[in-house]
Amino acid sequence: MKEHKKGLALWIIIVLLLLAGALLAGSPGRTESVQEAMRDAVLHDVNQVNLFGLKAVNPGMISAFVVTGILLLAAAAIRIFAIPRFQYMPGKFQLILEEAVGVFDRMAHTNSPHRCGFLRAYLFAAGAFVFTGTLFELLGLQAVTVHGHPVTLPAPLSDVNAAIALGTLSYLVILSGGIAGNGPKGILKTLKEFSLPISMSFRLFGALLSGLLVTELVYYFVNLSFVLPVVVGVLFTLLHALIQTYVLTMLTALYYGEVSEVSHKPEKS
Question: 213: closest CA among 57, 43, 42, 29?
Answer without folding.
Answer: 42
